[in-house]
Amino acid sequence: MRKSFLFILAGCMALYLLTGFTQVRPGEKGVIRRFGKPLAQLAEPGLCIGLPWGMDRVDKIAVDKVNNIAVGFFEDDGGKPLPSGQMLTGDNNLVNVQVTVYYKVEPGMEVDFAINAPIIPEFIKRYVESETALWIASKTVDEALLTGKISMGPAILNKASLRIKDCNLGIQLLDVRVSMVAPPDEVKPSFDAVARAQTSVTTMLNKAEQDTESKQRQAESDQFRLEQETLALANSMILQAGKDAERFLARLEQYLEGKKNNPDYLLQIWQEERGKIFTKLREQGNLGLLDQYLGAGGLEINLMPLGQKTKP
Description:
Layout: H1 2-18, E1 21-24, E2 28-34, E3 37-43, E4 46-49, E5 56-62, E6 67-72, E7 86-88, E8 94-105, H2 110-116, H3 120-137, H4 141-165, E9 171-182, H5 188-261, H6 265-283, E10 294-295, E11 298-299
Antiparallel strand pairs: 1-4, 2-3, 2-5, 6-8, 7-8, 8-9, 10-11
Helix pairs in contact: 3-4
């Protein structure tokens, strides 16, 4: 009987001693509390051997896990006159706001996280809700609805991180994402109508800016084309004037040289030029014989029919 009692006692003692063995999984660290006081040494992944239950307590902390918590407005508000997450803008309009906070254990602060774990979600809710209300109160309803989903999250993350860091909770805020910024259901149709009107105005402004830019580009293109055409014409006229001047000087030199040997050289030039003019007029049908219009008194101009001009 005594041996059986000792055997049972030894078995119970062995089971009690086994409570000092704790398995810490990969991605976790164990915070050991010995008689309630946390030890500085953390239990690494693997088998942790400590004192039995009642002496040691191991809190396993998932150091790589990203936790999230929703803060703000929820549909089921319990019939409260001002539901949580329904906030007042700077121009005294109500908006429903909900954000999601992502956080994890801050490296080196595992002990603080283990001690404050039960109150951490409530702390995050209060701080984030406070910063959200301050941000909403600093904006008009239009600013909050139009820019809230983009600019509110980073602003809350920055300020809430600074406040929470001073509390030594052992957490690190990673991101704050705005899930909802919307007017209450009672006034949502009116806000939707305003939003559609603002969208229409924005669309018209964008179209007007595009048209203006297109016309400006066309005007610049036309200006460039006209400048190039003017420059080309001016260059052409300058070249032509230069050639005419060269021909005139060459002809003048030829005349001066020819006059030395022929006093009637100028008359000869005139006859050559007149011949060229008459030849051109004949080719165009503007020159012909006038013999049939000769009368007793000379040339009868009144009998001359007006000839049809031919196109060159």
